[in-house]
Specification:
Layout: E1 4-9, H1 16-29, E2 35-40, H2 46-53, E3 58-62, H3 79-84, E4 89-92, H4 95-100, H5 105-118, E5 121-126, H6 130-134, H7 138-152, H8 155-158, E6 162-165, H9 179-196, H10 198-201, E7 206-209, H11 214-221, E8 228-231, H12 238-247
Parallel strand pairs: 1-2, 1-8, 2-3, 3-4, 4-5, 5-6, 6-7, 7-8
Helix pairs in contact: 1-2, 1-12, 5-7, 7-9, 11-12
The chain binds 1,3-dihydroxyacetonephosphate (13P).
1,3-dihydroxyacetonephosphate binds near residues 9, 171 and 233.
Length: about 250
Amino acid sequence: MRRKLVAGNWKMNGSLAANASLLAGLKAGLQEGSCDVAVCAPAPYLAQCQAELKGSSIAWGAQDVSVHESGAYTGEVAASMLLDFGCTYVIVGHSERRAYHGESNELVAQKTVRALAAGVTPIVCVGETLQEREAGQTDLVVGGQVDAVLEALDAAQLGRIVLAYEPVWAIGTGKTATPGMAQEVHAMLRARLSAKDAGVAQKVQILYGGSMKPDNARELLAMPDIDGGLVGGAALKAADFLAIIGAA
Ligand code: 13P
């Protein structure tokens, strides 16, 4: 059976003071259990996460990584730097990066490879817009996003990624995919992974993200192919994030 992972994506939120209180709340309230927990912080706060979370059961990660190894790439953060600060995870291909920074499927695939090469687990995000869903293109779009990543990986690498299905229309909108809708896409994604390696596909955690809250987490997480959550807004409140972890 796959372990569940609940990962918070803080996006561009927080401050030293706010993070300290959030992390203290999480550490105090977390019941040691059989679920993986992580927070993905803005890069300047990774050192703070490392200092506050080292020795706890909460892992930390970043929200993006450079496709380049090192060198003259002003403003970018290398995978090796994330490792230096103890990151277990890095989000790649979030829809906000795809939409606002023009990240292509191919770039996301290359970033995935770069993270793996450095020993950081990529949380690879895929998801369709409302327009694409309404046009009946969900499988085409989401399948294409995942296939680009699959093309770049061998089976051993595939076994070291986390996938996240985040319908764009559900992100920050309060509209959640129904458990049935999400399960349908998760099953399609696992079938794509199976075409590469059926055994490995059974082990890959596939998270759901998009307005996951304490009151809808339980139903979503009960679906057979939903292995956790990638949580935005609700991850900024210790009580809400802990409630989602409790549901998992
Ligand atoms: P919300 O939970 O705020 O909808 O954000 C989801 C998300 O984008 C996580 O990466």
